[in-house]
Amino acid sequence: MNAVVSASGVRMSYGDVQVLNGVDFTVASGEVSCIIGPSGSGKSTFLRCLNGLEPVLGGSLRVLGEEVGHALRDGRYHPWTPKEFAAFRRNIGMVFQRFNLFAHQSAAENVACGPVHVLGTPADRARTVAMEHLDRVGLAEHAHKRPHQLSGGQQQRVAIARALAMNPALMLFDEPTSALDPELVDEVLEVMKALAADGMTMVVVTHEIGFAREVGDRLTFFADGVVVEQGRPRELLAAPRHERTRTFLSSVA
Ligand code: ADP
Ligand code: MG
């Protein structure tokens, strides 16, 4: 199996506040890797490091075969140019708790936007691609609607379609269902489950323990900027080795 993500001793701080204290974490191609952990433990920061949105200040982080933020040229590592940074990020889809759709565009326009403006796909082709991805998330018949005409669950599915339209090699999800009303959570999890079944490599920060158990290949418990424990979801959930993990699990169950 090829490692899509390989983090070793990753450190990151905001000023004096150390947020990641040496994270070791790997994701193989096609794997669904779920991350759980208390608020403030560095989960979102780690995801942002994975797609180069935050600088890695220590350790090593390789994603999709690249040392994040650094290119090897002339036998030495150099900081990425903006162009190299953009080329890297294009391969990684990210879905946030808040969907951040463009309010004045239809669902189809939201999905077509990246292919047109980033990939240079001709508008009519991008529209076809957008329709394919909206169909994939079960929203083909809502393609003409603006975000305010869609439920939160539908908006999040548009956000997933928008990320998929860039044809990413890795998808990152940061609590994608946390902002949703409870009855809308499942429709989003079902889309993510289908994506996993299609073989997408995914890192999913979530409090949906059922999803992690059923769909995840690996489960990682984060606390205080480190990986406390990691394992197969069923095994970790049935028999957590650390007290912190047990306490956390009893708080979300
Ligand atoms: P999680 O996603 O696990 O809740 P975060 O990665 O969002 O954790 O945050 C980890 C820590 O970093 C928290 O203490 C948070 O307050 C701090 N933090 C997050 N973003 C910033 C920022 N932009 N500037 C300063 N501190 C931040
Ligand atoms: Mg977070």
From TrEMBL:
Residues 5-249 form the ABC transporter domain. InterPro entries: AAA+_ATPase, ABC_ATPase_HisP-typ, ABC_transporter-like_ATP-bd, ABC_transporter-like_CS, MetN_ABC_transporter-like, P-loop_NTPase. Keywords: ATP-binding, Nucleotide-binding, Transport. GO terms for molecular function: ABC-type amino acid transporter activity; ATP binding; ATP hydrolysis activity. Transmembrane segments: none annotated. PROSITE patterns: ABC_TRANSPORTER_1, ABC_TRANSPORTER_2. Belongs to the ABC transporter superfamily. This is Polar amino acid transport system ATP-binding protein.
